[in-house]
Every structure is written in C-alpha cells, then in structure tokens.
Amino acid sequence: MSFLERLNGPRHETALRVFLAIVLAHWAEHLLQAFQIYGLGWPVPEARGALGYFFPALISSELLHYGYALVMLAGLWMLRSGFTGIEDRRWWTIALSIQFFHHIEHFLLQGQYLLGQNLFDRPVPTSLVQLWVPRVELHLFYNTIVFIPMVVAMYFHMFPPVMAGRPKCTCAWHRGLSPA
Question: What digits encode the pLDDT tens for the residues 6-53?
Fold first, then answer.
C-alpha cells in the first residue's frame, strides 16, 4: 500500500483527526487575534494571536499564514480520496476548491513580502479580496467558508447513508451495524 492508500484506508480516521486538530489550532489563533482586537482593544498590528505574540517574525514574514494555507491545501487534497460517498466527496471538494483560492491569496501575500513590492501601492502586502474586506475579518471569513463544507463532508462521512455494497470507513460511527 502506498502512503496515500494507507492515509485514506486504514489510517483515514487518524489522519482526519490530526488534520482537524491543525485546523482547530489555526481557528484558535484567529479567534485569539479577534479577541485581542475587539475584546482587549489592541491595535491590529499588535494583535498577532499566540504564536505571533511570541514569534512576531512569523506574522510579519507571512510565513505562518502561507505555511498553514499550504498544509490546509495539501491535507484537503491528500484526504479527498478517502471520501467515497457522493455527498461527503462533494462537500470535501467544495472545501478544497475554496482553499485553493485562499492559497492563491496567501501566495500573493508571500510573493509581495519576498519581492519587497506590494500590490496596488499599498503600504503592506495586500491580497485581492483585501481591497474590499479588512484583513482580520477576511481571514475569519475564509476560514469559515472552508470549515463549513469540511464539517458537512465529515458529517456525511461519519454518518453515511445506508447503501448496499458501499464500504464504510473506520470513521463511520455505525459501521458494521445492520439496519433495524
């Protein structure tokens, strides 16, 4: 068995749990940053979440966000073949598609940082959608619109409709139970 076959076969449940832990840790960072801004009244440049507070270079270099965007994109791509039903595969693919665009936005930010040239003569690296939506709110929005279809996909994956002959993943809560 190849690595991807193991990841989407006998190790799928563990891989999804690890991936979800990474996603939730990133959510915690953004929610902490929002609390720092709106709850504590910190200026946006000082509100960097927990990792950015202790390692500010991770935020100023765009490295943390670009790294997360890559991990998220890779995780969604690698775990996709483990979603074998119609509904769970559809929703996972929606999350993957949205994350692909989110990755492009982070790629633009990372490129601006590395080249030292910001788009649109802005004082800081700026993504496309950031022209209309402030950065903190934009990140919360992107995380939300990727997270919701992921959760829907995982729901359909964990509670698949009963279909004759469809193999059930170890993630399915009622695998092996016969319908009453």
Answer: 999 889 999 999 999 999 999 999 999 999 999 999 999 899 989 988
- C-alpha 87/C-alpha 132 separation (Å) is 33
How many whole angstroms separate alpha carbon 86 and alpha carbon 88? Answer: 6
Whether the Cβ atoms of residue 149 and residue 95 lie closer than 8 Å to each other: yes
Strand, coil or helix: 9: coil
- Category of 124 on φ-ψ map: left (φ > 0), alpha (ψ -120 to 50) or beta: beta
Provide the pLDDT confidence category of residue 179 given band limits of 50, 70 and 90.
very low
Q: Is 72 exposed, middle or buried (0-12, 13-18, 19+ CB in 10 A)?
A: buried
∠ Cα 166 168 173 (to 5°): 135
DSSP string, 82-133: G--SHHHHHHHHHHHHHHHHHHHHHHHHHHHHHHT--GGG-SS---SGGGTS
The vertex-77 CA angle with 71 and 80, nearest 5°, equals 130
- Cα within 13 Å of Cα(74), Cβ side: 10
Report residue 166's pLDDT band, with 50, 70 and 90 as the boundaries.
low
